[in-house]
Amino acid sequence: MTIAWMDPNKIRFITIHCTATPEGRNNSAAEVTRWDVELFGQPSYHHVFELDGDDVQTLRYDQRGAHVGKNNTGNVGLSYVGGTETLNAGGDPKDTRTAAQRRSMETRLRELLNRYPTAKVRGHRDWPGTKKACPSFDVKAWLTEIGLGSHYG
User: Fold this and answer.
1) What is the C-alpha to C-alpha distance for residues 93 and 118, in angstroms, rounded to an integer?
2) Mind listing the pLDDT tens digit for each residue in 31-71?
3) How far apart are CA 69 and CA 125, in angstroms?
4) Are 39 and 91 in contact (CB under 8 A)?
5) E strand or H helix that includes residue 11
6) What is the C-alpha to C-alpha distance for residues 38 and 47, in angstroms, rounded to an integer?
7) With contact defined as beta carbons under 8 Å apart, do 112 and 8 qualify?
8) Which phi-psi region, left, alpha or beta, contains residue 74 (left: φ > 0; alpha: ψ -120 to 50)?
9) Cis check: omega of the bond before 135, within 30 degrees of 0
10) pTM (global) more than 0.90
11) How far apart are CA 1 and CA 66, in angstroms?
12) Alpha-carbon distance 93 to 106, whole Å?
């Protein structure tokens, strides 16, 4: 497995994702990473938030993820396990974050913004040309709710 490098001093974006797995299915960060390696040849996200709130780092910040097409350089990817209503293919998008996932995601996001204060935060669906519901919630509204609305972009 070959992972590309990026300069961690040039982080410009933090992108929030979901794994598009059914509500309540307790997939581990290791499973998510294995799927990504099978699909993309490497881990996609820098952090995966499991249902119990565990924040598992799967890439270092000097390693480029595979999470936003051609916009991965200078971009930290965060993903929570969940994001769809049902197990069936094509399940409706749904914000399935547990309270523990919300807390750990907010904690990590605040730590990253302290480290990268000029970084802009957006959901995967907020990238131009993206036709996905990911992360299945309104990132701008959530950032405003937790007092980080000025970092949306």
Assistant:
1) 30
2) 999 999 999 999 999 999 999 999 999 999 999 999 999 99
3) 12
4) no
5) none
6) 18
7) no
8) left
9) yes
10) yes
11) 13
12) 21
